[in-house]
Design a protein that fits this description.
Length: about 325
């Protein structure tokens, strides 16, 4: 039988964190889910409560915590622009102080630790698609900087703990991921468009909708992250995990309308400052080192996501901040 590990998932009640917890619990590990519920709620992990190999702790990663673990998936951080910009100082503290606290824990326990970094560290990229070697084009003083620079600093901390203290690290750069359990009011484009379409509202396109993103379905993402954690110690990343299928935001809106059968109109809203013009991962490294590539098309993933949105009662969700449209 495979080794049973004690695994901490920070941000474990969130969209991606809850799916990682679920997968690790199914694999028989002892899982500790830690979250302050800023952008999530207990219902994401309610089905795991009561299982003998699952534990839930309400805690903020900006504060120290002492646990004994073998592995850490460090996912805690608000991820949607409206919510991470709501309290930007808290956002950068979450990335920087949170990483210091968790890296300290990894060092003390001899645990392996994985950072959920982001394609945002490439900023508004001048290189397309983006390989891991590209150093990015981030505005350090703009409204997205609390997130982008916070994650860049987190990557720096991970590398320095690795070089200086030999902490066993992994860095994953996640590109736009969507799927069931996204917060319906998280303000990200997929959840906004589906919620708007299903509730008979107009679809809000920021700018002219020609900006692009590449959307990865959550099952592909979770598989990539788990492979990275369990891969060879020589390969610490950073590695891009995302789906290279690139779509304009207008194309996404049209697909959501087609798949929901909604009568919604597309309405234009001002483009937020520093909104990246285009984004697509170069995933050659993930293919080569992890034998990983996405298997679920945007159309297929959206069908599953729309089904999930239809199955939930939106009145049970509290918007984390007012910034969701
Ligand atoms: P999410 O908002 O659903 O999850 C983040 C979780 O972290 C939430 O449960 C939130 O309550 C928790 N959290 C926030 N601040 C915290 C703090 N100070 N202490 C403890 N918990 C805290 O978002 P997600 O999409 O699941 O993102 C998870 C991680 O993946 C984030 O680190 C995000 O930056 C990264 N990421 C996600 C995407 C994506 O497209 N989903 C893309 C790039 C990077
Ligand atoms: N977007 C949009 N309408 C919305 C929400 C977002 O047109 O209601 C656009 C946004 O301006 C950006 C893209 O969709 O160009 C992706 O936005 P999201 O917040 O999902 O992620 P990120 O910008 O961080 O990739």
């Amino acid at each position: 039988m495979a080794e049973i590990k004690r695994i901490l998932v920070t941000g474990g009640a969130g969209f991606l964190g809850s799916h990682i917890c679920e997968r690790l619990v199914q694999d028989g590990h002892d899982v500790i889910c830690l979250d302050n519920f800023f952008t999530s709620q207990k219902s994401n992990v309610a089905h795991l409560l009561g299982l003998s190999n699952f534990e839930l702790i309400r805690h903020d990663v900006t504060l120290p915590i002492f646990l004994e673990v073998d592995e850490i998936y460090h996912m805690a951080c608000p991820a949607a622009p409206g919510h991470y910009q709501f309290n930007p100082i808290k956002t950068i503290k979450t990335s920087v102080m949170g990483s210091i606290n968790l890296l300290g824990m990894a060092k003390r326990c001899g645990a392996k630790i994985l950072l959920a970094s982001t394609s945002e560290i490439y900023g508004d990229p001048e290189v397309h698609p983006q390989p891991e070697s590209y150093r990015g084009n981030v505005n350090p003083i703009g409204p997205r900087a609390c997130y982008d620079e916070g994650k860049r600093a987190a990557e720096t901390l991970f590398m320095d703990y690795h070089r200086m203290n030999r902490v066993n690290i992994r860095i994953v750069r996640i590109f736009n991921t969507y799927g069931p359990r996204m917060h319906p009011y998280d303000g990200r484009v997929v959840s906004n468009f589906i919620r708007q379409a299903l509730t008979g509202n107009d679809i809000t396109i920021f700018g002219d909708g020609q900006q692009t993103r590449a959307f990865c379905y959550r099952d592909d993402l979770v598989e990539g992250i788990i492979r990275m954690m369990n891969g060879a110690d020589q390969f610490i990343g950073p590695v891009n995990i995302g789906n290279p299928g690139e779509f304009s935001i207008r194309e996404l809106a049209e697909l959501v309308i087609e798949l929901t059968g909604a009568k919604a109109k597309l309405i234009e809203r001002p483009l937020p400052a520093d909104d990246p013009t285009r984004r697509r991962p170069d995933i050659r490294l993930a293919k080569q080192e992890l034998d990983w590539q996405p298997t679920i098309s945007l159309r297929e993933g959206l069908v599953k996501t729309i089904e999930w949105f239809k199955s939930v009662d939106l009145s049970h969700y509290r918007p984390p901040t007012p910034n969701y449209v």
